[in-house]
């Protein structure tokens, strides 16, 4: 298949050719991101420098984004060229790329028609191992299921009160399961959800514990139970965590999660042509 994008001149030539998901899996070495965060709708390119892809993050073609993964020492413009090709392919499909990631320290220049509106750094983690059930349940704490729509206000109010970066999105139909931790008196101590990615794989989201009850095992309890539910459903569980949240990262690693990628993600929007 002919290459659809490249830069040649005084610097090394960077070319990217479109590939399908089967070849993307092969070229990426069955990368966990490709396996579990991409669907059949993914748009992908590959070249001597590595691979890149974009696709819907959530079902119904919502929130298109992706990443480029290149070899160390690749030309600085490699990811930028990949994004330019992918943005063009997405436009041909009638969709827009809303976010794109590189590994930290890599440059990204957005193509004409897009502009960067923000950025963040996060880890994509995964596990296929159900956490053991031997952990003691915090005394007086019980779990119950909440309803994504009917309990949306309760979840949103609690989440915002105890975390400025709460991203549970209750009431929007993203969650297949919400769990709440309560004490013996019924006070809400923590919440967490399973979302469904466009790939069909469950993804932990919106895990928040009351500020005055942290460090008591409540977050671990919610994470472990949600992980067991995800693995029972799909054989794998995924999550994203801000890279600077070392407490959460250690908790997830202790429950069997592995970091597939550490991403620097740029939010994108249509800009001036």
Automatic annotation (TrEMBL):
Residue ranges occupied by any N-acetyltransferase domain in the UniProt entry: 141-273
Record-linked Pfam families: Acetyltransf_1
Protein name in UniProt: N-acetyltransferase domain-containing protein
Organism: Ornithinimicrobium pekingense
């Amino acid at each position: 298949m002919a290459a659809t994008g490249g830069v040649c001149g005084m610097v090394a030539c960077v070319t990217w050719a479109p590939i399908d998901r089967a070849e993307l899996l092969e070229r990426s070495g069955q990368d966990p991101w490709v396996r579990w965060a991409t669907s059949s709708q993914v748009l992908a390119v590959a070249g001597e420098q590595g691979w890149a892809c974009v696709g819907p993050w959530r079902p119904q073609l919502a929130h298109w984004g992706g990443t480029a993964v290149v070899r160390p020492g690749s030309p600085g413009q490699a990811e930028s060229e990949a994004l330019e090709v992918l943005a063009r392919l997405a436009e041909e499909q009638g969709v827009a790329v809303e976010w794109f990631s590189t590994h930290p320290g890599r440059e990204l220049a957005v193509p004409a028609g897009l502009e960067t509106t923000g950025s963040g750094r996060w880890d994509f983690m995964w596990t296929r191992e159900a956490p053991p059930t031997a952990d003691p349940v915090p005394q007086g704490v019980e779990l119950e299921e909440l309803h994504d729509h009917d309990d949306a206000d309760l979840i949103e109010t609690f989440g915002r009160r105890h975390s400025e970066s709460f991203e549970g999105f209750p009431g929007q139909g993203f969650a297949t399961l919400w769990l709440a931790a309560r004490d013996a008196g019924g006070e809400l101590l923590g919440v967490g959800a399973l979302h469904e990615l466009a790939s069909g794989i469950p993804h932990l989201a919106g895990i928040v514990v009351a500020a005055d009850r942290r460090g008591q095992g409540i977050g671990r309890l919610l994470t472990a139970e949600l992980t067991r539910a995800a693995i029972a459903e799909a054989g794998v569980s995924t999550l994203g965590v801000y890279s600077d949240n070392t407490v959460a990262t250690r908790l997830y690693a202790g429950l069997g999660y592995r970091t597939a990628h550490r991403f620097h993600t740029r939010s994108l929007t249509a800009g001036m042509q």
